[in-house]
Specification:
CATH architecture of the largest domain: 2-Layer Sandwich
Distance between the termini: 67 Å
Shape: globular
Number of domains: 4
Helix content: 25-40%
Radius of gyration: 24 Å
Number of helices: 17
CATH superfamily of the largest domain: ATP-grasp fold, B domain
Mean pLDDT: 90
Strand order of the largest sheet: 13-12-9-10-11-14-21-19
Largest sheet: 8 strands, antiparallel
Low-confidence stretches: 474-499
């Protein structure tokens, strides 16, 4: 059947992203929103919009039954969940089907299998896909788990079976820390996912995080759209993503792609999904997990393949076969994405809220901005801290990085701190430019003081004159730091005094 009207059960940039493709396809769109999002761009863009509850997501965007009832009452054929919220909720997928509403995503059964990291590992093992050494079943007895950890060899990771985003995950480097860290992992997993199941696996040192984008249809066809490099992370969450990866050979790329599509076949998967791998220093790769939804970073895959992944999601949900085969897909050029978040990189990337006093997007060749905000809007406290995704595209990696540096320079945001300055630091760093980096990039190279803006030539001259004046007036006084030694605060004081 052809879908005629879609309820987009999400907010912000992903809601707008889905709606734009739907409109390209001649499909009407319905927005849902909380009281905090009354003035949001996705609400104004949709053909229809309905308030579904109060600001907390538990009282609005997570109310699956209410969203399904709304879809039925407004005559919608389908629901697109975006990512986050209800996108990986097997029960929601099942209830949509029972209500006669198309869920634009995988089946409830596939979500259940891959939603459990333990279940996903077992499914992957059935196709002989490389797994990180460890145990593929839940464990709760601390002493027994400690024995397993010793057999695997430290360092190890204790990981929650449900969920992701770094929650319920603990790195343990020595045996005496094991009991405490396991207790913390279980407690965090219960709080975040309502499921305290954990498993243990070997911690791969100096890892790279590489994932494969795929789409399957309801006729057994699965194709992949090559890899994305996602190794620049804070708190196990990504900040910079690119496609293709700078480290893979064509042979390894082909092997990883086959493994990813085999993972999909292991659970009869259809819809868009991502298979994540950890890659060691010798380019050995191991299956981590599968995300049964569209990913935040999907635009970089779209740009290097020329394929609209949301359009494919909709076609697959309508029951149509994939319009391409694997041999039809080629990598063209290079794409980079940074997440522009309302976070303070000078204070451990802590999220902050406020009003976008200034908000001006970059423009020009090879620049794309996916966002859900405009100047004067408030960043609410209730949801994810991401303001926008800034994406650049070029003929090769060097051109793409150059365009990203230029785009970051052009992006004007005031009113809240953002990750823009940190991402500029990444783009200019020798390790990133060379491609010789891994998930330890922040730990190894980044310190907040490195983001202190350098003085201009005029400011440096004024600072030198001020310093000379201070020395002449107070020869016994302790010397102030030179501009090159100054902390961010000290530098701001130089500027104050120079005004």
């Amino acid at each position: 059947m052809n879908i005629k009207k879609i309820v987009v059960a999400n907010r912000g940039e992903i809601a707008l992203r889905v709606m734009r493709t739907a409109k390209d396809m001649g499909i009407k769109t319905v927005a849902v929103y909380s009281t905090a999002d009354r003035k949001a761009l996705h609400v104004r863009y949709a053909d229809e919009a309905y308030c579904i509850g109060e600001a907390p997501s538990s009282q609005s965007y997570l109310l699956g039954d209410k969203i399904i009832a709304l879809a039925k009452s407004c005559g919608a054929d389908a629901i697109h969940p975006g990512y986050g919220f209800l996108s990986e909720n097997a029960n929601f997928s099942r209830k949509c089907k029972e209500a006669g509403i198309i869920f634009i995503g995988p089946s409830a059964e596939s979500i259940e299998i891959m939603g459990s990291k333990i279940g996903a590992k077992k499914a992957a093992a059935s196709y002989n896909i490389p797994l990180v050494p460890g145990i593929n079943e839940a464990i709760s007895d601390v002493e027994e788990a400690k024995k397993v950890a010793k057999q695997i060899g430290y360092p190890i990771l204790i990981k929650a079976s449900a969920g992701g985003g770094g929650k319920g995950m603990r790195l343990v480097e020595k045996e005496e820390d094991f009991a405490e860290q396991m207790q913390r992992a279980v407690s965090e997993a219960v709080a975040a996912f309502g499921d305290g199941s954990v498993f243990i696996e070997k911690f791969v040192t100096s890892p790279r995080h590489i994932e494969i984008q795929l789409v399957g249809d309801q006729h057994g066809n699965v194709v992949h759209f090559f890899e994305r490099e996602c190794s620049i992370q804070r708190r196990h969450q990504k900040l910079v993503e690119e496609a293709p990866s700078s480290c893979l050979t064509p042979e390894i790329r082909e092997k990883m792609g086959k493994c990813a599509t085999d993972v999909a076949r292991a659970c009869n998967y259809y819809g868009a999904g991502t298979v994540e791998f950890v890659v060691d220093a010798d380019l050995n790769f191991y299956f981590l997990e599968m995300n049964t939804r569209l990913q935040v970073e999907h635009p970089v895959s779209e740009l290097i393949t020329g394929v609209d992944l949301v359009r494919l999601q909709i076609l697959v949900a309508e029951g149509k076969p994939l319009p391409m085969k694997q041999e039809d897909l080629k990598i063209n050029g290079h794409a980079m994405e940074i997440r522009v978040c309302a976070e303070n990189p000078l204070n451990n990337f802590l999220p902050e809220v406020g009003t976008l006093t200034t908000y001006k997007r970059p423009q020009g060749t090879g620049v794309r901005v996916d966002d859900g905000f405009e100047q004067g809007m408030e960043i609410p406290i209730y949801y994810d801290s991401m303001i926008a995704k800034l994406i650049t595209y070029g003929k090769d990696r060097s051109e793409t990085i150059a365009r990203m540096i230029r785009a970051i320079d052009e992006y004007q945001i005031t009113g809240v701190p953002t990750t823009l300055q940190f991402c500029q630091f990444v783009m200019r760093h020798e390790a990133f430019v060379s491609g010789d980096f891994n998930t330890k990039f922040i730990e190894k190279y980044y310190k907040p003081k490195l983001l202190a803006a350098p003085l201009t030539a005029d400011e440096a001259q004024v600072a030198a004159l001020l310093l000379h004046h201070i020395i002449e007036e107070k020869p016994t006084a302790q010397l102030a730091p030179t501009p090159s030694q100054a902390t961010p605060l000290a530098k701001s004081k130089w500027r104050e005094r120079a005004k």
